[in-house]
Automatic annotation (TrEMBL):
PANTHER family: MAJOR FACILITATOR SUPERFAMILY (MFS) PROFILE DOMAIN-CONTAINING PROTEIN (PTHR48022:SF30), PLASTIDIC GLUCOSE TRANSPORTER 4 (PTHR48022). Its main location: membrane. GO terms for molecular function: carbohydrate:proton symporter activity. It comes from the Eukaryota. One of its GO terms (cellular component) is membrane. It comes from Cytospora paraplurivora. The chain crosses the membrane at residues 53-73, 80-100, 106-126, 138-164, 260-282, 294-315, 327-349, 361-383, 395-417, 423-444. This is Major facilitator superfamily (MFS) profile domain-containing protein. Residues 1-448 form the Major facilitator superfamily (MFS) profile domain. It is found in: Membrane. Belongs to the major facilitator superfamily. Sugar transporter (TC 2.A.1.1) family. Keywords: Membrane, Transmembrane, Transmembrane helix. Pfam families: Sugar_tr (PF00083). InterPro entries: MFS_dom, MFS_sugar_transport-like, MFS_Sugar_Transporters, MFS_trans_sf, Sugar_transporter_CS.
C-alpha cells in the first residue's frame, strides 16, 4: 500500500477550503491610505482613534466569531458553520461598501470580524480532519496562503482603485470583498462534510464514503489506507463518546490543559511579533517613512507578495522540519529583525538619510517573509491538530480566541503608540516574542507525520487503536490467498 501519492482528492478539497478561509479578510489596510476614504472618515481631529477603532472593531468581532463557531460546528457540522460565516460576511461586505457614516462603518467592521473569526477558526478544524497525516502540514497550512492571498487581493484593489478619481473610490474594494464572500458560499457545495464529525454523530457509512473519496489513490486502489483510518477514527470516537466536554473540562484536566496552554502560547508568540499590527498599517507606515499615496499602496502590495512567497516556503518545510522547529526558528529570527528595524526607525525616521530609510523599508519586507515562512502556516496547523475530535472545535476556539485577543492587544493601540513612543513599541514585540519562543522550545511536543489520533498520545491520552495496527488488520482483511497482496 502506498498512501503518499498525490492523486487523492484531499489536496483539492483543502485548497478550496483554504481559499474560502481568506474571503472575509481584513480589507481595511489599503483603504486607510486612499484619499477618498481619508476625506470621508479620517479628516477629523480624532482620525488616529478612528483608525484604531476600525482595526480593533474587526478583531473584536473576530474574537466573538471564534467563540460562537464552536457550538455551531459541533452541533450542525463544519460546513454549516462555514455557511453561517459566509452569510455574515456577505451582509458585512455590503454594509461596509454602503457605509454613510463612521458609526455604520464601525458596526459593519465588527460584523465582518464575526464572519472572519468563524471561518478562520473553523477552517483549520475542517482541513485537519480531511487531510492525510503525511500531508496535513501542507494542506492545513494552505489556510495561511489563503489569508495572505486575500491581503494581496485587497492591496491590488486599493492600488488599482486609487486611480479611480471619484468619491466612491474606497467603496469598490468592499464590493469586491462582498463578491468574494458570495463565491465562498457557493464553494461549499463542492465540499464533503468532515468524516470525523460524521463518525462522531453516528453516520459511519457517510464517514467511510468521504474517507474513500478523499484518500483513495492509484497506489492504494482498494482504499486500504482510508478503511484503516476509518477504523481508527471509529475506535477513538467510541472511546471518547462518554467523556465530558466543554471549556471547564478542558481547563481542569491536565492533558487538555496542556493543549490549551500550547494553543494560547502559540498565538501569544505569533501575534507578539506585531505581524497583524504591521500588516494592517503597512501603507500608513510607509507614509511615515516619506512615501506618497500611490507608493504607499504599491509597497503594501509588495509586502504582501513577500509574505505569500514565505507561506509557500512554510508549507513545503512543515512536514519535513516539523512544527516546533519552525516556530522556534521563526520566533528568534523575527525578534532579531524587529530589533534592527527599531534601531533604524529610531535613528533615521523623518531624516534625509535615504540609505537608512531604505534599509528600514527593506526590513519590513524581510520581516513579512520570515514570519510567513516559519510561523504563519505552522501556527494554523498546530493549533487545530493537537485536539481530540470531540473537543477540536472548542480547542480551535481557544487557539483563535488567543489569536484575536493578542491581535487586539497589539493592534488597537498601534497607531497611538507609534505616534507617541515610536520605535520603542517595537521593543515590546521583541520582548514578548523572545520569551514566548523560549517557552515553545521547551514545552511543545512535535506532531509531524502523526495521525490526529496518534497526536493524542503526545499529550498523555490513550490511543484506542494504533494506526499501524489498523493498517495491518485492514491488509489482512483485504488479502485473499492467491488473489492479491496490498
Amino acid at each position: 500500500m502506498e498512501s503518499t501519492k498525490s492523486d487523492s482528492n484531499g489536496p483539492g478539497v483543502s485548497i478550496v477550503q483554504a481559499n474560502k478561509s481568506s474571503d472575509p479578510a481584513n480589507a481595511m489596510s489599503g483603504t486607510l491610505a486612499q484619499t477618498s476614504f481619508i476625506a470621508a472618515f479620517l479628516s477629523t481631529p480624532d482620525a488616529t482613534a478612528r483608525t484604531d477603532g476600525l482595526l480593533a472593531g474587526f478583531l473584536a468581532g473576530a474574537f466573538v466569531g471564534a467563540i460562537i463557531q464552536a457550538p455551531v460546528s459541533n452541533n450542525y457540522g463544519r460546513k454549516i458553520a462555514n455557511t453561517a460565516a459566509a452569510t455574515i460576511a456577505i451582509i458585512a461586505g455590503a454594509l461596509q461598501a454602503g457605509s454613510v457614516n463612521i458609526g455604520m462603518l464601525l458596526f459593519a467592521r465588527v460584523l465582518c470580524g464575526i464572519g472572519a473569526g468563524m471561518v478562520i477558526t473553523n477552517s483549520p478544524v475542517y482541513m485537519s480532519e480531511v487531510a492525510p497525516p503525511h500531508a496535513r502540514g501542507l494542506l492545513v497550512g494552505l489556510q495561511g496562503v489563503g489569508i495572505v492571498s486575500a491581503y494581496i487581493g485587497c492591496s491590488v484593489c486599493a492600488l488599482a482603485f486609487s486611480f479611480v478619481n471619484t468619491s466612491y473610490q474606497w467603496r469598490l474594494t468592499f464590493v469586491v470583498l462582498t463578491a468574494a464572500a458570495v463565491l465562498h458560499l457557493c464553494s461549499l457545495f463542492l465540499l464533503p462534510e468532515s468524516p470525523r464529525w460524521l463518525m462522531e454523530k453516528g453516520r459511519e457509512e457517510e464517514a467511510r464514503s468521504v474517507l474513500e473519496y478523499l484518500h483513495r489513490t492509484e497506489g492504494d486502489p482498494d482504499a486500504t489506507f482510508a478503511h484503516a483510518e476509518a477504523n481508527q477514527i471509529k475506535a477513538q470516537v467510541e472511546s471518547e463518546k462518554d467523556l465530558p466536554k466543554g471549556y471547564v473540562y478542558i481547563f481542569t484536566t491536565p492533558h487538555l490543559r496542556k493543549r490549551a496552554f500550547c494553543a494560547i502560547l502559540l498565538w501569544v508568540m505569533g501575534q507578539g511579533t506585531g505581524i497583524t499590527a504591521i500588516a494592517n498599517l503597512i501603507p500608513t507606515l510607509m507614509g511615515g517613512l516619506g512615501f506618497g499615496t500611490t507608493m504607499q499602496l504599491a509597497l503594501g502590495l509588495v509586502w504582501c507578495i513577500c509574505a505569500i512567497l514565505g507561506c509557500f516556503v512554510n508549507v513545503s518545510l512543515m512536514d519535513r522540519l516539523g512544527r516546533v522547529r519552525l516556530l522556534v526558528i521563526g520566533g528568534f529570527s523575527n525578534a532579531a529583525i524587529l530589533s534592527v528595524m527599531a534601531a533604524l526607525i529610531k535613528y533615521y525616521l523623518n531624516t534625509s538619510h535615504l540609505s537608512g530609510v531604505n534599509a528600514a523599508v527593506a526590513l519590513y519586507f524581510i520581516f513579512g517573509f520570515f514570519f510567513t515562512s516559519t510561523i504563519e502556516c505552522t501556527a494554523y496547523v498546530y493549533g487545530s491538530e493537537i485536539w481530540p475530535t470531540h473537543l477540536r472545535s472548542e480547542g480551535s476556539t481557544i487557539a483563535y480566541a488567543s489569536f484575536f485577543a493578542n491581535a487586539i492587544a497589539y493592534s488597537a493601540p498601534v497607531a497611538v503608540a507609534l505616534d507617541n513612543i515610536g520605535w520603542k513599541f517595537y521593543m515590546v514585540f521583541v520582548a514578548v516574542t523572545v520569551s514566548s519562543t523560549i517557552a515553545i522550545w521547551l514545552y511543545f511536543p512535535e506532531t509531524k507525520h502523526l495521525t490526529l489520533e496518534e497526536i493524542n498520545a503526545k499529550f498523555g491520552d490513550k490511543v484506542a487503536l494504533e494506526f499501524r495496527d489498523a493498517v495491518a488488520t485492514e491488509m489482512v482483511n483485504d488479502t485473499t490467498p492467491g488473489e492479491k497482496s496490498v
